[in-house]
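Entry:
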Amino acid sequence: MNAQIPARSFLANAAARTWASMFGGVFNTNAKHNHYKDFGFPDQVTFTHTYAAYNRNGLARAAVNKTVEKTWQDQPFLLEKERDGSQKGKTAETSLEKDIRQRFSDLRVWARLAEADRRGMVGRYCAVILRLADGQMFDKPVTMTNGGLEKLIEVIPAWEGQITVSEWDEDQSSESYGLPKMYQFTESAVGDSKNTNRTARQFLIHPDRVIVWSADGTLDARSALEPGFNDLVTLEKIIGAGGEGFWKNAKSAPVLEAQDNINIQAMAQAMGVKPDEIADKMSEQVEDWQKGFDQLLMLQGMQAKTLNVTLPSPEHFFLIALQSFAASNSIPLKILAGSQTGERASTEDADEWARTCMSRRANQTVPNIMLFVNRLERFGILPERDWFIDWTDLLDPSPNERLERIERMANVNDKMHATSEWIFTPEEMRAEGGYEPLSDAEKYLDDATDGEVDAASQSQADEVE
């Protein structure tokens, strides 16, 4: 009796076999071909691969740097409560915010966190190491609860390859079960430590002193370069093959064709070698000839020919891989490559890129910053507050765009002049330009006294500053 095979199961197995045969590198169940191996791609993309790509591939470096530089276009404000942190008018910073700003500036905290963001894109994660003035070694937990800003000494971003987990918490009754119990920091694991004049640091670090900076705040995130790594390899092949091909065509090795009536003995005598050494001697002559474009090649009884290779234009092949890599990082092609084909197109790409970076800032960067802030709260370096990160909106119009909007608003008011109605008030137009409303003394300078004029002038000067 034949067993009945469900139709759904049969179709699923057939589909699986089809996908496996078509995409051996991805659906590698029992495929005859592994496309990763066929095309020269690594089976697993490691930190070594992505770090090398960031350092040696211009497009990989541009994708990471442009993303981070746009996200960190300016430095944020750490505020005690939610409000505009631009320090204009009534929104001046508090004394605590001023102390934080000065201490963070002294330690270059925001710049170090931006560097952590960069390294977290190249690897799966980056570790932000806190150096504290608590009198303890790095491998000891932090017991300080009332430190103050002066207790924060340094913020050190570390590559994924420099810091690894040396011990996990395997106690199921522990609150930190499944989390790192101790880290191992090895400074020389990344980069060339031979170029430095000091001994590379290596020590254990307690998790209290480490903040994991990644896309999801864990050690299990993925590198931003991993989805497009195959495209980077393809681009390297196209660039390398194109450059090498043009060089070979410009100065290719000749093919020596012997004539029917060639006299080997006479050639050997003329060259001063034995007949069985003619091939080596000819190779030396060709090598000397290849060392310069203006060398003369002397032949006797032979004819030199060149094999020209017809190279296809690499632009189309390059563009396909470039578009795929740009898509893997959600970055417009014109932003990544720096090309401009039209004002409208470039403006739309810039707006889309700003929205992408705003989303990344809200969902990745700010949560990581708040992990850092909460850790400082825990150690008493910062007091407990409902802290707020204020950051300039990347979608804010430029000064020229603001002036253009004000001009259009003024034109609308002119068109409505016959109705004796204003569509836009002066206050609305000043707000569109990013300015505070004028006071009465500033509005009516003609009727003001000399003292009021001086006060209004000083107020305008302060606003400009």
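The longest helix spans residues 343-378.
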